[in-house]
Amino acid sequence: MSVKLDLHPTTKKWIVGVFLVGVSMIMLLGFLNLAGPIGKMFTSESFQLLGWAAPVLPFIFLILGLIFFSSKERTIWASGILGSSFFILGLSAILDIVSQAGLKRGGAIGYWLAILPQKGFGAIASFIFFVSIVIVGLLLLFNYPASSEISDEDEDENGKQNSVVRWLKLVVFPLNRLKSMLFLISRPFLPKLSKPSLKSEPFISSSAPQFKVHKLEDEYDASSALKDKTNFDDEIKVRPAKLSVPYVMPPLNLLDEDRGKPTSGDIKANMHIIKRTLANFGIEVEMGEVAVGPTVTQYTLKPAEGVKLARITALSNDLSLALAAHPIRIEAPIPGRSLVGIEIPNHAVTLVRLRNLLENEQFQGSQYRLNFALGRDVAGNPVFSALEKMPHLLIAGATGTGKTIALNSLLISLLYRNPPSILRFLLVDPKRVEFPVYNGTPHLLTPVIVDVQKTINALRWAVKEMDRRFDILAGVKARDIGMYNRELKRGQEPMPYIVIIIDELADLMAARGKEVEAVIVRLAQMARAVGIHLVVATQRPSVEVITGLIKANITSRMAFQVASQIDSRTIVDNAGAEKLLGNGDMLFMSAESSKPRRLQGAYISEKEVKRVVEFLKRDFEPEYDSEILDPQKATSGDFNGGEDVFGDEDPLYEEAKRLVIQARKASASYLQRRLRIGYARAARLLDILEERRIIGPGEGAKPRDILIGSSDNLINDDQSDMEEDNE
């Protein structure tokens, strides 16, 4: 009877890695004559076959073992094995070519590999050919595209690249890659290391070797777009982060894998109960397929002709009673299908780990830079989206339902796709406990912002940066940031994307509601083309926080579990979020589909977040921009969304004040009629008067109170006017 070992993929990978490292150690001992007669025999045979290339074998096996430890992708393993073969065979052939006649320093293999090329092309051409084979072997072994790493950031003002820096990078990168492999293996056993202090220089880095990001194909002729234009580099305030060593994306080994499988219960029995319960109320249905997801199981059914869907949805509580399951959600109809879906909670749920989603080909092969993992749908299929398509995202739900984990998943997904030269973050955390772990990440423009006033300054700076970027795009006739970056001349710095993430909007709206709403609305309306994207989260989905203007301009939304149907309609304009299960169960609505889609959000633990952040902080120092939080430099003169407009700049303020005091009443319609202005300006004048305590706050249909007397105030005004005339 055969016994089948059901080993975890990680266990298999470590077994192979340990075996290869062990073999390398034994081979090394054999070459040192410390492995007994068998080791001595192996050493002798190796020298006969490979000649002087034989001592390289232990190191080749060691590197292969480290590759198996540090990568899960089978393509990486295959390239490592193929590259090591090319390297060792090419080296033995080179040694045979350069050896004197009859010595065979490349061994028997080197001799037979080199003899035919030498007879056909000569020694020099054969030498060049096998050197090329050795270089290709090294590139495959380290999975290193040298041309993409040696980019244009080292070019001087004359456009000539420093050749010393270029060749140093060819040597440094494999060593840096080897260091990363060793760190991943030894990380559980190492003490906490202090962060090295490195100065930052402007750097345009490339994608990680472990992670393939397909760039958008050029759609325009870039040869002449920027040649005759003014150089706008000095105007770009957000510059790529300056890195003193080549940027390496964090490996997926830092994240945990999926564990366990969901348990849906007795599917056949549930199908029978659903059909019988509906039949008891006079509704005939035909049961369809069943999809088992990580959190819920969806039972599909097709009602008989003439049956109103409202009759089925009205039986939600009766089905919940019959199935002994709560809560259940009825999707009628399923988008794109002539079926009704009944979603029943699983008996045992499973976490949707972020790592398995990031390993998916849909994520790795995406053409979008800001692609990120959302989770899995009710059928267990992975779901991804991109901020370029959204272009902004609103997240809402009750406390503890998964909002912060969703933000962490979005952040880590973006960090796995983009170096600091491509993406920068502004993180706002009024709660002060969620985002501080990201402090020190090279992608941050500022430390995590926790103060309300600094948040206002940062948002105003973002509006100013948006206007500046529009001027730059207009100057080079580029439609958007993607077209601008594709048409850059060699040596020019790209325009990085900026993602602004606000973890709790309610706190900001309570403190400075009008200013925050105005700047968010303006960014949401215009910032997409220049690569600035908003991600806003709140645990209080009320109309005071998620105002009509914010909803109208942020069409992509995530709704986690909420307390009432009213809150659900506030977020996604539909009921259903009140029936979610929590723990990452959500409804996602994008601009592409007006109907929410149920997903189980991607999960990432705090430990995983810390691993990724520590990996990024080991070699790179952040480069913060102090101007962003400076109130004087952040304020834009032509921006009318902040408190700048609530002052005496309005020439009608004094006249409005006199009219209100004399008439002893204050309303927008009264000021509209007397001053012949629009409603928006009249309402703004009322806000100014209320702020300066001339009138009281509005109380529904009741008239506002006039807080100061008419005669005293007018006398004071006349006296002040006379004093000003005398001066």
UniProtKB/TrEMBL annotation:
PROSITE patterns: FTSK
Keyword vocabulary terms for this entry: ATP-binding, Cell cycle, Cell division, Cell membrane, Chromosome partition, DNA-binding, Membrane, Nucleotide-binding, Transmembrane, Transmembrane helix
Start-end of Acidic residues biased regions: 718-727
Listed transmembrane segments: 14-35, 47-70, 76-99, 120-142
A GO MF term: ATP binding
Domain of life of the source: Bacteria
InterPro entries named among the record's database cross-references: AAA+_ATPase (IPR003593), FtsK/SpoIIIE/SftA (IPR050206), FtsK_4TM (IPR025199), FtsK_alpha (IPR041027), FtsK_dom (IPR002543), Ftsk_gamma (IPR018541), P-loop_NTPase (IPR027417), WH-like_DNA-bd_sf (IPR036388)
SUPFAM superfamilies in UniProt: P-loop containing nucleoside triphosphate hydrolases (SSF52540), Winged helix' DNA-binding domain (SSF46785)
Region entry Disordered, spans: 700-727
Family statement drawn from the similarity comment of this UniProt entry: Belongs to the FtsK/SpoIIIE/SftA family.
Record protein name field: FtsK domain-containing protein
Naturally occurring in which organism (per UniProt): Candidatus Terrybacteria bacterium RIFCSPHIGHO2_01_FULL_43_35
